[in-house]
Specification:
Layout: H1 2-17, H2 24-27, E1 31-37, H3 48-52, E2 55-60, E3 66-67, E4 72-74, E5 80-82, E6 87-88, E7 93-97, E8 107-109, E9 122-127, E10 133-139, E11 146-148
Parallel strand pairs: 7-8
Antiparallel strand pairs: 1-2, 1-11, 2-7, 3-6, 4-5, 4-9, 9-10
């Protein structure tokens, strides 16, 4: 009987002190910003190849597929990409490229003709369709061309 009484009290104390053992990915439904390549290789000449050289990689760390339909990926300047009817499989990744291309299970395209991610500093923010923040990843000039988040 004492154990049953103590466990809820301990759980409440853990919540108040922030000592729960859940990770941000678990709290956000298993979806995280995993890797950002913000400075595409070569010269920034706005070719589609160069535009697609900058991307944000999203990872599903959960054990089930998650629909990203209506989720938003944006930068500090509010360049927004709304995910189409895309599902990311359990344990899978998807890259969101800036330029044009044909969407697949592992790559999707913003279809832009200009760069989104600043090379000097920026923040990628991922939100659900409801507007609740899922994850962010920031970088500065200390990061040479990409950042693992």
């Amino acid at each position: 009987m004492r154990i049953r009484t103590a466990l809820p009290a301990l759980a409440g104390a853990a919540i108040l002190t922030g000592t729960l053992l859940s990770t941000p990915a678990e709290a956000a439904g298993g979806v995280t910003i995993y890797h950002v390549w913000f400075d595409s290789p070569g010269s920034d000449n706005r070719s589609n190849t160069s535009l697609n050289g900058e991307w944000v990689q999203i990872k599903n760390t959960s054990r089930s597929a998650i629909s990203l339909k209506g989720w938003i990926l944006k930068d500090v300047s509010n360049h927004r990409y709304a995910f189409k009817n895309i599902k990311i499989g359990a344990g899978k990744y998807i890259k969101v490229h800036t330029g044009k291309g044909t969407d697949t299970a592992s790559n999707t395209f913003q279809n832009r003709a200009a760069y989104v991610w600043n090379n000097t500093s920026d923040t990628a923010t991922l939100t659900r369709a409801s507007g609740s923040k899922v994850d962010t990843c920031s970088w500065t000039t200390r990061d040479p061309s990409d950042k693992y988040c």
